[in-house]
């Protein structure tokens, strides 16, 4: 249903989106994985993409050959580590989306992925610093609360860090929040917008349900908050060892990538998405990265929105969030340094 709606909306936009200035190369790193494949499929439908470069350590030639038969305008190329494939994928990229890395199994936290994924992200950051220092970098690889600071430290070391162009993708949390609230309020999710702030794991995910326009009982509030914070665990448990969310993440990642493209090359104004970015909101408490609604413009992050008025219940959630977030960020920064 999404694909049909999305295709229709993209098709409508295509009529005014064909000039070269509106088109860009998008690279997906980790493109042959559970997220990478459906995400690349959705990006193949995006009218702002002129070239989709798919990089993974395995299987990208097949994924690229398959996607390249879809009759949308973009060219698709597949790259592996052979023949300097990472360089070829990254050169001239305007947007780089990164779902490379291992997913959770039941019983694991996202932080348990750190040991494996930190070095993967570090390697990809070193390559991005060299081959596409001006690209907009969208990080999906977990733990996002630490992988974004790792990426930033590598870019800083290379002297190319632009905080306006590095984004942790937290869109899945708002997608889930919208869906879960719509289920209990019997609404169409398209009319249910829930702001979610903080980070992307457990108690660092803070839904601001008091701003939703709906009334909740205390029981509903507790249940919804918990479900939004631990929605990822539901999928990990249901997949029973076969990974974590891939299809809903591809949907969320494609939505965020499209927003970045619309704001940076599509000329669209007032594009607002939540994202885990370098932020001043809690910098006075030593927390340099935070997810909140972010206004995107031609150069990326244009304005970081504050939290606005929040309830005492949410103030409590934010305090708990900040404790974990600070540790997750520090761990990423020290690894990246
Ligand atoms: N931000 C979010 O909301 C969110 C949501 C879901 C999953 N994730 C995270 O996304 C990551 C990927 O999840 P998945 O389900 O697609 O996993 P997956 O194992 O299915 O796919 C990961 C892919 O990364 C590739 N890869 C490994 N090392 C690489 C390297 N050095 N360079 C390029 N590619 C490399 C693998 O070959 C594989 O194809 C995980 O860390 C997961 O926790 C984040
Ligand atoms: O839960 C996970 O490990 C994957 C992802 O971060 C999610 O929220 O689904």
From TrEMBL:
Record GO terms (molecular function): L-malate dehydrogenase (NAD+) activity; mRNA binding
GO (cellular component) term, any one: mitochondrial matrix
Lineage of origin: Eukaryota, Fungi, Fungi incertae sedis, Mucoromycota, Mucoromycotina
Superkingdom assignment: Eukaryota
Domain Lactate/malate dehydrogenase C-terminal as annotated: residue spans: 170-335
Record: residues binding NAD(+): 30-36, 56, 117, 140-142, 249
Sequence ranges assigned to domain Lactate/malate dehydrogenase N-terminal in this UniProt record: 25-168
Enzyme class: oxidoreductase
Native source species: Hesseltinella vesiculosa
Protein name per its UniProtKB record: Malate dehydrogenase
PANTHER family: MALATE AND LACTATE DEHYDROGENASE, MALATE DEHYDROGENASE, MITOCHONDRIAL
Binding site for substrate: 104, 110, 142, 176
Subunit record text: Homodimer.
């Amino acid at each position: 249903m999404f694909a049909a709606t999305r295709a229709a909306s993209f098709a409508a936009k295509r009529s005014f989106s064909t000039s070269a200035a509106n088109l860009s190369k998008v690279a997906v790193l980790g493109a042959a994985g559970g997220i990478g494949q459906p995400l690349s499929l959705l990006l193949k439908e995006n009218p702002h993409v002129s070239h989709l470069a798919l990089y993974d350590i395995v299987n990208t030639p097949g994924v690229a050959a398959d996607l390249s038969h879809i009759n949308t305008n973009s060219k698709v190329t597949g790259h592996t580590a052979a023949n300097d494939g990472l360089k070829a994928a990254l050169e001239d990229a305007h947007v780089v989306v990164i779902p490379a890395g291992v997913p959770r199994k039941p019983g694991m936290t996202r932080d348990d992925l750190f040991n494996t994924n930190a070095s993967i992200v570090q390697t990809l950051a070193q390559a991005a610093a060299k081959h596409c220092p001006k690209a907009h970098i969208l990080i999906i690889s977990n733990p996002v609360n630490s992988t974004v600071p790792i990426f930033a430290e590598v870019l800083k070391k290379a002297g190319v860090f632009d905080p306006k162009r590095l984004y942790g993708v937290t869109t899945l949390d708002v997608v889930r929040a919208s869906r879960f609230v719509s289920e209990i309020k019997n609404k169409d999710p398209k009319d249910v917008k829930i702001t979610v702030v903080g980070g992307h794991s457990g108690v660092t995910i803070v839904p601001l349900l008091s701003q939703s326009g709906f009334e909740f009982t205390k029981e509903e509030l507790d249940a919804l908050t918990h479900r939004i914070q631990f929605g990822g665990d539901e999928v990990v448990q249901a997949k029973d060892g076969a990974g974590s969310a891939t299809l809903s993440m591809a949907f969320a990642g494609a939505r965020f990538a499209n927003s970045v493209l619309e704001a940076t090359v599509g000329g669209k104004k007032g594009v607002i998405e939540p994202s885990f970015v370098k932020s001043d909101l809690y910098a006075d408490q030593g927390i340099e990265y935070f997810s909140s609604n972010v206004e995107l413009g031609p150069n990326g992050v244009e304005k970081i929105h504050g939290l606005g008025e929040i309830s005492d219940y949410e103030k409590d959630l934010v305090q708990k969030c900040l404790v974990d977030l600070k540790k997750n960020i520090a761990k990423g920064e020290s690894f990246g340094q």
